[in-house]
Write a structure and sequence with these properties.
The complex is a heterodimer. Chain A is mostly helical. Chain A has ten helices and no strands. By secondary structure, chain B is of the alpha/beta class. In chain B, the strands form three sheets. Chain B has a six-stranded mixed β-sheet, with helices on both faces. A four-stranded antiparallel β-sheet of chain B has the order 2-1-4-5, covered by helices on one side. A four-stranded antiparallel β-sheet of chain B has the order 12-13-11-14, covered by helices on one side. In chain B, strand 9 (about 205-210) and strand 10 form a beta hairpin. In chain B, helix 2 (about 95-105) packs across helix 3 (about 115-125), helix 3 runs antiparallel to helix 4 and helix 8 packs across helix 9. Chain B starts with 9 loop residues before the first strand and ends with a helix. In chain B, about 45% of the residues are buried. The chains are: A mainly alpha, B alpha/beta. At the A-B interface, helix 1 and helix 5 of A face helix 1, strand 6, helix 2, helix 3 and helix 5 of B.
Amino acid sequence: MSGSPSSAGRRPVPGWPAAAPSPPPLPRRPSAPVLGASVLGPLVDLTARGLLGRRRIILVGLLGLAPAGVAIILVLGGELAAPAEVTRQLYDSLVLTTVVPLVALILGTTAIGAEIDDGTVIHLLAKPVGRAWIVLAKMLVAGAAGVMICATSVLVTGLLLVGLDEPRLVLGMLAGTVVSVVAYTAVFVTLSVWTGRALIAGLGYVLLWEGFIASFFSGTRLLSIREYGLAVAAGIAGPEAGSLPSDVTLATGLVLAMLVTAVAFVLGARRLARFEISDAG
Amino acid sequence: MSAKATPPAVSVRAVAKWYGNVVAVNDVTFDLEPGVTGLLGPNGAGKSTLLHLIAGLLRPSAGSVTVGGNPSFGDPAVYRRVGLVPEREAVFPYLTAREFVRLSARLQGLPLGSGAIDRALETVELSMAADRELATYSKGMRQRAKVAAALVHDPAVLVLDEPFNGMDPRQRLHMMALLRELAGRGRVILFSSHILEEVERVAERVLVVVAGRLAASGDFREIRRLMTDRPHSFTLRTSDDRALASRLAGRPTISGLAFEGGRLDVRTTDFAAFTRELPVLARDAGVSIFELAPADESLESVFDYLVRR
Protein backbone atom coordinates (compact mmCIF):
# COMPACT_ATOMS: atom_id res chain seq x y z
CA MET A 1 0.00 0.00 0.00
CA SER A 2 2.00 2.85 1.27
CA GLY A 3 5.30 1.05 1.09
CA SER A 4 5.81 0.32 -2.57
CA PRO A 5 5.24 2.95 -5.20
CA SER A 6 2.17 2.06 -7.16
CA SER A 7 2.54 2.51 -10.87
CA ALA A 8 -1.13 3.52 -11.07
CA GLY A 9 -0.52 6.54 -8.88
CA ARG A 10 2.61 7.60 -10.71
CA ARG A 11 2.29 10.64 -12.88
CA PRO A 12 4.69 11.18 -15.79
CA VAL A 13 6.92 14.17 -15.17
CA PRO A 14 7.13 16.60 -18.08
CA GLY A 15 10.45 16.86 -19.77
CA TRP A 16 11.75 13.45 -18.81
CA PRO A 17 11.91 10.56 -21.22
CA ALA A 18 9.76 7.49 -20.57
CA ALA A 19 10.97 4.77 -18.25
CA ALA A 20 14.29 3.27 -19.23
CA PRO A 21 14.33 -0.48 -19.80
CA SER A 22 16.97 -1.11 -17.17
CA PRO A 23 18.69 0.89 -14.44
CA PRO A 24 22.06 2.40 -15.32
CA PRO A 25 24.92 0.31 -14.00
CA LEU A 26 27.30 1.83 -11.48
CA PRO A 27 30.81 0.89 -12.60
CA ARG A 28 33.26 0.07 -9.86
CA ARG A 29 35.76 2.62 -11.12
CA PRO A 30 34.58 5.95 -12.46
CA SER A 31 34.88 5.80 -16.22
CA ALA A 32 35.11 9.56 -16.63
CA PRO A 33 37.90 11.44 -14.92
CA VAL A 34 37.59 14.51 -12.76
CA LEU A 35 37.17 17.60 -14.89
CA GLY A 36 40.20 19.84 -15.39
CA ALA A 37 40.98 23.00 -17.33
CA SER A 38 37.59 23.10 -19.03
CA VAL A 39 35.95 24.22 -15.79
CA LEU A 40 38.27 27.19 -15.30
CA GLY A 41 36.12 29.45 -17.49
CA PRO A 42 32.85 28.92 -15.60
CA LEU A 43 34.63 29.09 -12.25
CA VAL A 44 36.39 32.34 -13.14
CA ASP A 45 33.14 33.77 -14.45
CA LEU A 46 31.27 32.81 -11.27
CA THR A 47 33.99 34.16 -8.99
CA ALA A 48 34.24 37.43 -10.90
CA ARG A 49 30.50 37.99 -10.68
CA GLY A 50 30.47 37.12 -7.00
CA LEU A 51 33.46 39.30 -6.17
CA LEU A 52 32.73 42.31 -8.33
CA GLY A 53 29.02 42.25 -7.57
CA ARG A 54 29.52 42.79 -3.86
CA ARG A 55 29.36 46.24 -2.34
CA ARG A 56 32.70 45.76 -0.70
CA ILE A 57 34.40 46.00 -4.10
CA ILE A 58 33.62 49.74 -4.00
CA LEU A 59 35.32 49.97 -0.62
CA VAL A 60 38.28 48.01 -1.94
CA GLY A 61 38.45 50.30 -5.00
CA LEU A 62 38.47 53.41 -2.81
CA LEU A 63 41.13 51.91 -0.56
CA GLY A 64 43.23 50.91 -3.56
CA LEU A 65 43.00 54.32 -5.13
CA ALA A 66 43.98 56.12 -1.90
CA PRO A 67 47.62 56.66 -3.03
CA ALA A 68 46.38 58.24 -6.27
CA GLY A 69 44.11 60.47 -4.17
CA VAL A 70 47.06 61.54 -2.03
CA ALA A 71 49.06 62.26 -5.20
CA ILE A 72 46.25 64.44 -6.55
CA ILE A 73 46.14 66.41 -3.29
CA LEU A 74 49.93 66.86 -3.37
CA VAL A 75 49.88 68.07 -6.98
CA LEU A 76 47.03 70.44 -6.28
CA GLY A 77 48.92 71.72 -3.22
CA GLY A 78 51.72 73.13 -5.34
CA GLU A 79 55.01 72.14 -6.89
CA LEU A 80 56.95 69.55 -4.91
CA ALA A 81 60.63 70.12 -4.13
CA ALA A 82 61.58 66.44 -4.55
CA PRO A 83 58.74 64.65 -6.31
CA ALA A 84 60.71 61.42 -6.89
CA GLU A 85 61.52 61.14 -3.20
CA VAL A 86 57.89 61.79 -2.24
CA THR A 87 56.82 59.07 -4.71
CA ARG A 88 59.25 56.57 -3.20
CA GLN A 89 58.06 57.34 0.33
CA LEU A 90 54.44 57.09 -0.74
CA TYR A 91 55.12 53.75 -2.37
CA ASP A 92 57.09 52.33 0.53
CA SER A 93 55.01 53.57 3.43
CA LEU A 94 51.49 53.65 1.98
CA VAL A 95 51.21 51.41 -1.10
CA LEU A 96 53.28 48.39 -0.06
CA THR A 97 52.74 48.66 3.69
CA THR A 98 49.01 49.28 3.83
CA VAL A 99 47.10 49.47 0.56
CA VAL A 100 48.35 46.36 -1.25
CA PRO A 101 48.07 43.95 1.71
CA LEU A 102 44.64 45.22 2.74
CA VAL A 103 43.23 45.16 -0.79
CA ALA A 104 44.62 41.65 -1.28
CA LEU A 105 43.34 40.59 2.13
CA ILE A 106 39.76 41.66 1.42
CA LEU A 107 39.72 40.24 -2.11
CA GLY A 108 41.55 37.04 -1.22
CA THR A 109 39.38 36.18 1.76
CA THR A 110 36.16 37.14 -0.05
CA ALA A 111 36.86 35.10 -3.19
CA ILE A 112 36.23 31.73 -1.52
CA GLY A 113 35.84 32.57 2.17
CA ALA A 114 32.47 34.21 1.56
CA GLU A 115 31.23 31.10 -0.27
CA ILE A 116 32.41 28.89 2.57
CA ASP A 117 30.70 31.19 5.09
CA ASP A 118 27.33 31.30 3.34
CA GLY A 119 27.40 27.65 2.29
CA THR A 120 27.30 28.19 -1.48
CA VAL A 121 30.67 26.45 -1.82
CA ILE A 122 28.73 23.16 -1.59
CA HIS A 123 27.48 23.78 -5.14
CA LEU A 124 31.11 23.75 -6.33
CA LEU A 125 32.34 20.92 -4.14
CA ALA A 126 29.54 18.54 -5.14
CA LYS A 127 30.85 18.49 -8.70
CA PRO A 128 33.44 16.28 -10.44
CA VAL A 129 35.88 19.16 -10.53
CA GLY A 130 39.54 19.01 -9.51
CA ARG A 131 39.82 21.10 -6.36
CA ALA A 132 43.00 22.76 -7.65
CA TRP A 133 40.96 24.38 -10.42
CA ILE A 134 38.57 25.91 -7.91
CA VAL A 135 41.47 27.38 -5.93
CA LEU A 136 43.20 28.55 -9.12
CA ALA A 137 40.05 30.33 -10.32
CA LYS A 138 39.69 32.11 -6.97
CA MET A 139 43.34 33.16 -6.98
CA LEU A 140 43.21 34.33 -10.60
CA VAL A 141 40.14 36.51 -10.08
CA ALA A 142 41.21 37.93 -6.71
CA GLY A 143 44.73 38.54 -8.04
CA ALA A 144 43.54 40.14 -11.28
CA ALA A 145 41.11 42.42 -9.45
CA GLY A 146 43.80 43.41 -6.96
CA VAL A 147 46.35 44.04 -9.71
CA MET A 148 43.91 46.18 -11.68
CA ILE A 149 43.03 48.32 -8.67
CA CYS A 150 46.51 48.67 -7.17
CA ALA A 151 48.46 48.95 -10.44
CA THR A 152 46.10 51.64 -11.70
CA SER A 153 46.59 53.52 -8.47
CA VAL A 154 50.39 53.21 -8.62
CA LEU A 155 50.51 54.21 -12.28
CA VAL A 156 48.36 57.30 -11.67
CA THR A 157 50.44 58.19 -8.61
CA GLY A 158 53.72 57.82 -10.50
CA LEU A 159 52.60 59.74 -13.55
CA LEU A 160 51.13 62.56 -11.47
CA LEU A 161 54.19 62.98 -9.26
CA VAL A 162 57.18 62.20 -11.49
CA GLY A 163 55.62 61.95 -14.93
CA LEU A 164 58.02 60.42 -17.43
CA ASP A 165 61.09 61.86 -15.71
CA GLU A 166 61.72 58.64 -13.82
CA PRO A 167 60.29 55.89 -16.03
CA ARG A 168 62.22 53.06 -14.40
CA LEU A 169 60.93 54.07 -10.96
CA VAL A 170 57.32 53.96 -12.18
CA LEU A 171 57.94 50.67 -13.97
CA GLY A 172 59.62 49.21 -10.88
CA MET A 173 56.75 50.29 -8.64
CA LEU A 174 54.26 48.74 -11.05
CA ALA A 175 56.16 45.45 -11.16
CA GLY A 176 56.60 45.39 -7.37
CA THR A 177 52.88 46.00 -6.97
CA VAL A 178 51.91 43.21 -9.34
CA VAL A 179 54.27 40.72 -7.70
CA SER A 180 53.15 41.52 -4.17
CA VAL A 181 49.41 41.60 -4.98
CA VAL A 182 49.62 38.18 -6.65
CA ALA A 183 51.55 36.64 -3.74
CA TYR A 184 49.35 38.25 -1.09
CA THR A 185 46.06 37.19 -2.71
CA ALA A 186 47.32 33.63 -3.16
CA VAL A 187 48.22 33.45 0.53
CA PHE A 188 44.92 34.96 1.65
CA VAL A 189 42.79 32.72 -0.59
CA THR A 190 44.55 29.70 0.89
CA LEU A 191 44.21 31.11 4.39
CA SER A 192 40.43 31.32 3.95
CA VAL A 193 40.31 27.68 2.88
CA TRP A 194 42.26 26.70 5.99
CA THR A 195 40.50 28.82 8.58
CA GLY A 196 37.18 30.55 9.08
CA ARG A 197 39.07 33.43 10.68
CA ALA A 198 41.20 34.25 7.66
CA LEU A 199 40.58 37.98 7.93
CA ILE A 200 41.93 38.11 11.48
CA ALA A 201 44.82 35.77 10.65
CA GLY A 202 45.65 37.86 7.57
CA LEU A 203 45.55 41.10 9.55
CA GLY A 204 47.83 39.50 12.11
CA TYR A 205 50.32 38.62 9.38
CA VAL A 206 50.22 42.08 7.81
CA LEU A 207 50.29 44.13 11.01
CA LEU A 208 52.33 41.99 13.39
CA TRP A 209 54.68 40.09 11.12
CA GLU A 210 55.30 42.52 8.30
CA GLY A 211 54.59 45.73 10.14
CA PHE A 212 56.50 44.93 13.29
CA ILE A 213 58.71 41.86 13.37
CA ALA A 214 60.02 41.98 9.79
CA SER A 215 60.82 45.68 10.06
CA PHE A 216 62.91 45.20 13.20
CA PHE A 217 64.61 41.89 12.52
CA SER A 218 66.31 41.93 9.16
CA GLY A 219 66.72 38.13 9.14
CA THR A 220 62.95 37.68 8.89
CA ARG A 221 62.61 39.85 5.79
CA LEU A 222 63.04 36.86 3.55
CA LEU A 223 59.65 35.76 4.88
CA SER A 224 57.87 39.01 4.05
CA ILE A 225 55.85 39.49 0.86
CA ARG A 226 56.20 43.24 1.28
CA GLU A 227 59.97 42.83 1.00
CA TYR A 228 59.60 40.86 -2.24
CA GLY A 229 57.57 43.69 -3.75
CA LEU A 230 60.11 46.22 -2.56
CA ALA A 231 62.98 44.15 -3.94
CA VAL A 232 61.33 43.88 -7.36
CA ALA A 233 60.52 47.60 -7.42
CA ALA A 234 64.01 48.63 -6.38
CA GLY A 235 65.68 46.11 -8.67
CA ILE A 236 63.84 47.29 -11.77
CA ALA A 237 64.11 50.96 -10.84
CA GLY A 238 67.91 50.52 -10.68
CA PRO A 239 69.57 53.90 -10.27
CA GLU A 240 66.18 55.56 -9.91
CA ALA A 241 65.39 53.44 -6.82
CA GLY A 242 67.05 56.07 -4.68
CA SER A 243 65.96 55.64 -1.08
CA LEU A 244 63.68 52.64 -1.71
CA PRO A 245 65.06 50.34 0.99
CA SER A 246 65.70 46.75 0.00
CA ASP A 247 67.83 44.10 1.63
CA VAL A 248 66.70 41.53 -0.92
CA THR A 249 67.91 41.29 -4.52
CA LEU A 250 65.55 41.46 -7.50
CA ALA A 251 66.10 37.78 -8.40
CA THR A 252 65.65 36.59 -4.83
CA GLY A 253 62.52 38.68 -4.36
CA LEU A 254 61.01 37.43 -7.61
CA VAL A 255 61.83 33.78 -6.94
CA LEU A 256 60.57 33.91 -3.36
CA ALA A 257 57.35 35.64 -4.43
CA MET A 258 56.74 32.95 -7.05
CA LEU A 259 57.60 30.25 -4.51
CA VAL A 260 55.18 31.67 -1.93
CA THR A 261 52.45 31.89 -4.57
CA ALA A 262 53.06 28.32 -5.72
CA VAL A 263 53.20 26.93 -2.18
CA ALA A 264 50.01 28.80 -1.28
CA PHE A 265 48.30 27.33 -4.34
CA VAL A 266 49.38 23.78 -3.54
CA LEU A 267 48.37 24.06 0.12
CA GLY A 268 45.03 25.61 -0.81
CA ALA A 269 44.27 22.88 -3.34
CA ARG A 270 45.29 20.12 -0.93
CA ARG A 271 43.18 21.54 1.83
CA LEU A 272 40.13 21.94 -0.39
CA ALA A 273 40.53 18.34 -1.56
CA ARG A 274 40.03 17.22 2.07
CA PHE A 275 37.54 19.92 2.92
CA GLU A 276 34.56 18.92 5.06
CA ILE A 277 31.26 20.72 5.18
CA SER A 278 30.86 21.91 8.73
CA ASP A 279 27.10 22.10 9.27
CA ALA A 280 25.30 19.01 10.46
CA GLY A 281 21.87 18.06 11.70
CA MET B 1 24.18 -14.71 -7.25
CA SER B 2 25.05 -12.54 -10.20
CA ALA B 3 23.68 -9.48 -8.39
CA LYS B 4 26.47 -9.93 -5.86
CA ALA B 5 29.07 -9.28 -8.54
CA THR B 6 28.32 -5.58 -8.60
CA PRO B 7 28.66 -3.52 -5.44
CA PRO B 8 25.58 -1.85 -3.95
CA ALA B 9 24.84 1.57 -5.40
CA VAL B 10 25.55 3.08 -2.00
CA SER B 11 27.06 1.16 0.87
CA VAL B 12 27.37 2.51 4.41
CA ARG B 13 29.38 0.26 6.71
CA ALA B 14 29.71 0.80 10.48
CA VAL B 15 29.98 4.52 9.90
CA ALA B 16 30.53 6.95 12.72
CA LYS B 17 31.14 10.67 12.66
CA TRP B 18 32.12 12.65 15.67
CA TYR B 19 33.17 16.22 16.33
CA GLY B 20 35.38 16.29 19.40
CA ASN B 21 33.23 14.76 22.13
CA VAL B 22 30.01 15.05 20.16
CA VAL B 23 28.90 11.94 18.30
CA ALA B 24 26.76 12.93 15.31
CA VAL B 25 26.45 9.48 13.71
CA ASN B 26 27.20 6.22 15.47
CA ASP B 27 27.79 2.78 13.95
CA VAL B 28 25.36 3.02 11.06
CA THR B 29 25.20 0.29 8.41
CA PHE B 30 22.92 0.00 5.38
CA ASP B 31 22.91 -0.37 1.59
CA LEU B 32 20.91 1.58 -0.94
CA GLU B 33 19.56 0.14 -4.15
CA PRO B 34 17.42 1.69 -6.89
CA GLY B 35 14.19 3.10 -5.53
CA VAL B 36 13.18 5.80 -3.06
CA THR B 37 14.49 5.53 0.48
CA GLY B 38 13.35 7.96 3.14
CA LEU B 39 15.72 8.99 5.90
CA LEU B 40 13.45 9.78 8.79
CA GLY B 41 14.35 11.27 12.13
CA PRO B 42 13.74 14.21 14.44
CA ASN B 43 15.68 17.44 14.00
CA GLY B 44 19.28 17.06 15.07
CA ALA B 45 19.21 13.26 14.76
CA GLY B 46 22.15 13.19 12.36
CA LYS B 47 20.27 13.01 9.07
CA SER B 48 22.25 15.80 7.38
CA THR B 49 25.51 14.36 8.65
CA LEU B 50 24.61 10.99 7.18
CA LEU B 51 23.63 12.54 3.85
CA HIS B 52 26.84 14.57 3.75
CA LEU B 53 28.84 11.41 4.48
CA ILE B 54 27.15 9.66 1.56
CA ALA B 55 27.63 12.71 -0.65
CA GLY B 56 31.36 12.71 0.11
CA LEU B 57 31.33 16.05 1.88
CA LEU B 58 32.33 14.59 5.24
CA ARG B 59 35.04 12.11 6.05
CA PRO B 60 33.82 9.22 8.22
CA SER B 61 35.52 9.11 11.63
CA ALA B 62 35.12 5.32 11.46
CA GLY B 63 33.69 2.86 8.95
CA SER B 64 33.28 3.40 5.23
CA VAL B 65 30.89 4.93 2.73
CA THR B 66 31.11 3.85 -0.90
CA VAL B 67 29.22 4.82 -4.02
CA GLY B 68 29.44 2.23 -6.77
CA GLY B 69 32.24 0.58 -4.80
CA ASN B 70 34.37 3.72 -4.52
CA PRO B 71 34.88 5.70 -1.30
CA SER B 72 32.70 8.79 -1.51
CA PHE B 73 35.03 11.12 0.38
CA GLY B 74 38.07 12.62 -1.32
CA ASP B 75 37.14 11.58 -4.86
CA PRO B 76 35.35 14.31 -6.84
CA ALA B 77 34.76 11.78 -9.66
CA VAL B 78 31.97 10.37 -7.50
CA TYR B 79 29.85 13.41 -8.41
CA ARG B 80 29.62 12.11 -11.97
CA ARG B 81 26.93 9.81 -10.63
CA VAL B 82 25.76 11.62 -7.53
CA GLY B 83 23.44 14.62 -7.43
CA LEU B 84 23.08 16.51 -4.16
CA VAL B 85 20.33 18.86 -3.03
CA PRO B 86 21.60 20.40 0.19
CA GLU B 87 19.26 21.60 2.91
CA ARG B 88 20.81 25.05 3.21
CA GLU B 89 19.00 27.59 1.15
CA ALA B 90 22.21 29.27 0.04
CA VAL B 91 22.48 29.74 -3.70
CA PHE B 92 24.47 32.27 -5.72
CA PRO B 93 21.99 35.16 -5.47
CA TYR B 94 23.37 37.04 -8.47
CA LEU B 95 22.76 34.14 -10.87
CA THR B 96 19.47 33.46 -12.60
CA ALA B 97 18.06 29.95 -12.24
CA ARG B 98 19.08 29.21 -15.81
CA GLU B 99 22.64 30.40 -15.13
CA PHE B 100 22.72 28.34 -11.93
CA VAL B 101 21.68 25.17 -13.75
CA ARG B 102 24.02 26.00 -16.65
CA LEU B 103 26.89 26.36 -14.17
CA SER B 104 26.04 22.94 -12.79
CA ALA B 105 25.94 21.51 -16.33
CA ARG B 106 29.29 23.04 -17.23
CA LEU B 107 30.89 21.79 -14.01
CA GLN B 108 29.57 18.35 -14.93
CA GLY B 109 31.22 18.64 -18.34
CA LEU B 110 27.92 18.49 -20.22
CA PRO B 111 27.94 19.96 -23.71
CA LEU B 112 25.89 23.15 -23.83
CA GLY B 113 23.00 22.87 -26.24
CA SER B 114 22.26 19.28 -25.28
CA GLY B 115 18.90 20.35 -23.90
CA ALA B 116 19.81 19.15 -20.41
CA ILE B 117 19.45 22.63 -18.90
CA ASP B 118 15.97 23.28 -20.31
CA ARG B 119 14.89 19.77 -19.43
CA ALA B 120 16.03 20.14 -15.81
CA LEU B 121 14.28 23.51 -15.47
CA GLU B 122 11.11 22.10 -17.02
CA THR B 123 11.23 19.12 -14.70
CA VAL B 124 10.95 21.35 -11.64
CA GLU B 125 8.51 23.72 -13.37
CA LEU B 126 10.84 26.70 -13.34
CA SER B 127 11.00 27.39 -17.08
CA MET B 128 8.87 30.51 -16.83
CA ALA B 129 10.92 32.08 -14.04
CA ALA B 130 14.30 30.75 -15.19
CA ASP B 131 15.68 34.13 -16.19
CA ARG B 132 15.03 35.79 -12.84
CA GLU B 133 17.85 36.18 -10.33
CA LEU B 134 17.79 33.62 -7.54
CA ALA B 135 17.85 36.50 -5.03
CA THR B 136 14.24 37.23 -6.01
CA TYR B 137 13.10 33.61 -5.54
CA SER B 138 10.96 32.28 -2.71
CA LYS B 139 12.30 29.47 -0.55
CA GLY B 140 10.32 26.87 -2.47
CA MET B 141 11.56 28.18 -5.82
CA ARG B 142 15.17 28.11 -4.64
CA GLN B 143 14.62 24.57 -3.51
CA ARG B 144 13.41 23.63 -6.99
CA ALA B 145 16.35 25.44 -8.60
CA LYS B 146 18.70 23.35 -6.46
CA VAL B 147 16.89 20.19 -7.54
CA ALA B 148 17.20 21.21 -11.21
CA ALA B 149 20.95 21.82 -10.75
CA ALA B 150 21.35 18.42 -9.07
CA LEU B 151 19.39 16.64 -11.81
CA VAL B 152 20.99 18.26 -14.84
CA HIS B 153 23.46 15.40 -15.40
CA ASP B 154 20.79 12.75 -14.71
CA PRO B 155 22.67 11.18 -11.78
CA ALA B 156 22.34 7.52 -10.84
CA VAL B 157 22.21 8.50 -7.16
CA LEU B 158 20.24 11.49 -5.95
CA VAL B 159 20.65 12.68 -2.35
CA LEU B 160 18.19 15.28 -1.09
CA ASP B 161 18.26 16.92 2.34
CA GLU B 162 14.75 17.97 3.42
CA PRO B 163 13.71 18.58 -0.20
CA PHE B 164 10.10 19.48 0.59
CA ASN B 165 10.97 22.36 2.91
CA GLY B 166 9.41 25.61 1.77
CA MET B 167 7.36 24.01 -1.00
CA ASP B 168 3.63 24.55 -1.28
CA PRO B 169 1.36 21.46 -1.38
CA ARG B 170 1.15 21.37 -5.18
CA GLN B 171 4.94 21.64 -5.58
CA ARG B 172 5.32 19.00 -2.89
CA LEU B 173 3.12 16.56 -4.81
CA HIS B 174 4.99 17.31 -8.02
CA MET B 175 8.32 16.68 -6.31
CA MET B 176 7.04 13.41 -4.87
CA ALA B 177 5.90 12.33 -8.34
CA LEU B 178 9.30 13.29 -9.72
CA LEU B 179 11.15 11.22 -7.13
CA ARG B 180 8.96 8.21 -7.84
CA GLU B 181 9.45 8.73 -11.57
CA LEU B 182 13.23 8.79 -11.17
CA ALA B 183 13.10 5.72 -8.97
CA GLY B 184 11.03 4.00 -11.64
CA ARG B 185 13.86 4.66 -14.08
CA GLY B 186 16.30 2.84 -11.82
CA ARG B 187 17.75 5.78 -9.95
CA VAL B 188 18.77 5.54 -6.31
CA ILE B 189 16.97 8.23 -4.35
CA LEU B 190 17.68 9.04 -0.72
CA PHE B 191 15.88 11.94 0.91
CA SER B 192 15.63 13.09 4.49
CA SER B 193 12.61 14.35 6.31
CA HIS B 194 11.39 14.80 9.85
CA ILE B 195 7.79 14.45 8.70
CA LEU B 196 6.42 10.92 8.78
CA GLU B 197 3.67 11.56 6.24
CA GLU B 198 6.12 12.86 3.63
CA VAL B 199 8.19 9.71 3.89
CA GLU B 200 5.10 7.53 3.89
CA ARG B 201 3.83 9.02 0.65
CA VAL B 202 6.96 8.64 -1.42
CA ALA B 203 9.40 6.15 0.05
CA GLU B 204 9.43 2.41 -0.47
CA ARG B 205 12.03 1.88 2.20
CA VAL B 206 12.79 3.86 5.29
CA LEU B 207 15.76 4.43 7.52
CA VAL B 208 14.90 5.82 10.94
CA VAL B 209 17.71 7.72 12.62
CA VAL B 210 17.53 8.83 16.22
CA ALA B 211 20.39 10.43 18.16
CA GLY B 212 22.90 9.43 15.49
CA ARG B 213 21.91 5.75 15.51
CA LEU B 214 19.94 3.74 13.00
CA ALA B 215 16.81 2.92 15.01
CA ALA B 216 15.00 0.97 12.29
CA SER B 217 15.32 0.23 8.62
CA GLY B 218 13.44 -1.66 5.98
CA ASP B 219 10.09 -1.71 4.30
CA PHE B 220 7.98 1.26 5.29
CA ARG B 221 4.90 -0.86 6.10
CA GLU B 222 6.88 -2.91 8.60
CA ILE B 223 8.18 0.22 10.33
CA ARG B 224 4.70 1.69 10.29
CA ARG B 225 3.32 -1.43 11.95
CA LEU B 226 5.98 -1.24 14.65
CA MET B 227 5.06 2.38 15.22
CA THR B 228 1.32 1.62 15.41
CA ASP B 229 1.70 -1.47 17.60
CA ARG B 230 3.92 0.16 20.18
CA PRO B 231 2.54 0.80 23.71
CA HIS B 232 0.32 3.87 23.64
CA SER B 233 -0.51 6.23 26.46
CA PHE B 234 -3.79 8.10 26.79
CA THR B 235 -5.06 10.71 29.17
CA LEU B 236 -8.75 10.48 30.16
CA ARG B 237 -11.06 12.89 31.93
CA THR B 238 -14.25 11.14 33.00
CA SER B 239 -17.19 11.40 35.41
CA ASP B 240 -15.67 8.65 37.60
CA ASP B 241 -11.99 7.86 36.97
CA ARG B 242 -11.78 5.14 39.63
CA ALA B 243 -14.81 3.20 38.42
CA LEU B 244 -13.50 3.15 34.88
CA ALA B 245 -9.99 2.27 36.09
CA SER B 246 -11.31 -0.76 37.98
CA ARG B 247 -12.91 -2.04 34.77
CA LEU B 248 -9.81 -1.33 32.69
CA ALA B 249 -7.52 -3.02 35.22
CA GLY B 250 -9.02 -6.41 34.36
CA ARG B 251 -8.24 -6.15 30.66
CA PRO B 252 -5.08 -7.91 29.38
CA THR B 253 -4.33 -5.12 26.89
CA ILE B 254 -3.90 -2.54 29.66
CA SER B 255 -0.33 -2.35 30.93
CA GLY B 256 -0.56 0.62 33.28
CA LEU B 257 -2.99 2.94 35.08
CA ALA B 258 -2.28 6.09 37.05
CA PHE B 259 -4.25 8.93 38.62
CA GLU B 260 -2.54 12.22 37.85
CA GLY B 261 -3.91 15.66 38.73
CA GLY B 262 -7.57 14.74 38.39
CA ARG B 263 -7.00 12.73 35.21
CA LEU B 264 -6.62 9.05 34.46
CA ASP B 265 -3.51 7.99 32.55
CA VAL B 266 -3.85 4.69 30.71
CA ARG B 267 -1.14 2.69 29.00
CA THR B 268 -2.09 -0.01 26.50
CA THR B 269 -0.13 -2.56 24.52
CA ASP B 270 -2.84 -2.93 21.88
CA PHE B 271 -3.98 0.33 20.37
CA ALA B 272 -6.79 -1.20 18.26
CA ALA B 273 -8.27 -3.36 21.05
CA PHE B 274 -8.18 -0.45 23.50
CA THR B 275 -10.10 1.86 21.18
CA ARG B 276 -12.73 -0.87 20.70
CA GLU B 277 -13.07 -1.80 24.38
CA LEU B 278 -13.02 1.60 26.04
CA PRO B 279 -16.52 2.78 25.01
CA VAL B 280 -18.04 -0.58 25.99
CA LEU B 281 -16.35 -0.61 29.41
CA ALA B 282 -17.32 3.01 30.07
CA ARG B 283 -20.96 2.34 29.14
CA ASP B 284 -21.11 -0.78 31.34
CA ALA B 285 -19.65 1.15 34.28
CA GLY B 286 -22.00 4.09 33.71
CA VAL B 287 -19.06 6.44 33.28
CA SER B 288 -19.12 9.44 30.95
CA ILE B 289 -15.91 10.23 29.07
CA PHE B 290 -15.35 13.96 28.76
CA GLU B 291 -11.93 13.88 27.18
CA LEU B 292 -9.63 11.30 25.60
CA ALA B 293 -6.22 12.43 24.35
CA PRO B 294 -3.13 10.52 23.23
CA ALA B 295 -0.23 11.37 25.51
CA ASP B 296 2.70 10.27 23.40
CA GLU B 297 1.86 10.83 19.75
CA SER B 298 4.79 13.12 19.00
CA LEU B 299 7.22 11.87 16.41
CA GLU B 300 9.99 12.03 18.99
CA SER B 301 8.16 9.55 21.23
CA VAL B 302 7.67 7.21 18.27
CA PHE B 303 11.37 7.42 17.45
CA ASP B 304 12.20 6.99 21.10
CA TYR B 305 10.21 3.76 21.16
CA LEU B 306 11.98 2.45 18.06
CA VAL B 307 15.34 3.12 19.67
CA ARG B 308 14.45 1.35 22.90
CA ARG B 309 12.99 -1.81 21.39
